[in-house]
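Today's session is about reading a structure prediction critically. Students often jump straight to the picture, but the first step is always the sequence itself: look for stretches that repeat, for charged clusters, for runs of hydrophobic residues. Only then move on to the predicted structure, which in these notes is written as discrete structure tokens rather than atom positions. Here is the chain we will use throughout the hour.
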Amino acid sequence: MPKEITLSPDVLQKIEKIKEVDIVIGIPSYNNARTIGQLIRAVDDGLSKYFSSSRALIVNSDAGSHDDTVSVACAGVETDPRFLALAHSLHPVYKIVTPYHGVPGKGSAFRTIFQVAELLCAKACAVVDASLTSVTPEWIERLVKPVLVEGFDYVSPVYLRHKYDGTVTNSIVYPLTRALYGKRLRQPTAGDCGCSGKLASFYLAEELWHASAARYGIEVWMATAAVANGFKVCQAFLGAKTHDSTALVRDLSTMLTQVAGTVFHLMERHQSVWQAVNGSEPVPIFGLPFEVGLEPVDVRVERLLSAYRQGVRDLSEIWKHFLSPAVLERLQRLSKANVPEFRFQDALWAKVVYEFAAACYARQMDRDHLLKSLTPLYLGRTASFVLETQQSTAADVENRLELLCLEYENLKPYLMEKWRG
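Below is the predicted structure for this chain, in token form.
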């Protein structure tokens, strides 16, 4: 089947004039007037500093911003041959709350960037989030150089984060994708990444662009597709990741439903791959880690535990349709524990995630209802993790997460058993 071209005739004419480039840097945007000017300058500086002899293009793919994003992005660069501004209106079906920083239906912006990269025969492509305030010229080097110089196909970022930031990634996405596919990609949900022209063309040939995974979970889909299809993957240390303070706060239940739902959907798609994988292996990392100041993250344990206990009271009748009796009994017993003694053990949590994934695969009940019922369990697990690590350093917490990942890996036969019914 021929690839669908979604670029406008005007954009195609501009691409025809440019003819060919070595590097494409894509910036998906949606109402990012406060940050996009600074971001474009950082990208341009990175290209000038580290890739001065390469032909490069910066592509801003805007999804119908109603602030000054487009005008700010174009200010002073309207005649710059290294800048291309693309704007497309937001389809009504995409007017939803998404789990990622960026535009609703972010997949359409990525698709546009990859199409430009393919038509210009780019050797390397990188994408950076328009809401970021922490991008430096070094980000561009670390996302692109492993592709151009070292021959990698996918570059996944590694950030320094507060020990209680990114708990969905830390407790579900990272340990699960690591156990499934055998690669220790620390940030598989990150929107900033680098890829080869070959991988960009592979993405374009996939049939998921109109599916929910492309709209809500494009980042984890790209990382998973690269690993599951045998592309050469690595990581790049980028330091701290900070967003514009006015970024939209998303509903937790919706975010968790969409993130977990995407990972579970990809499990179905790639089951022949992950069922043959045992254990995991490190992934090469470029860039030396360094310490940076991090914003504190306030976690209210009592509120999380209250939500967990309420969930056990209200949802046990639903959970009994797909959770094993032993797991459900332990969840109910845990809801009676006092705060100091509350511990949601790693093995129990991994079994919960595995049983939810298997239930989604077996279509045991409405998928959205099933996924939303994971929220109070996730909150209980988060509360337990905070109680356990209050006095721990960031390094201690990373070591603690390693134990969780090993538990996921050790219990993979349990997943296989539940998956096969």
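Discussion point for the tutorial: The chain has a mean pLDDT of 86.
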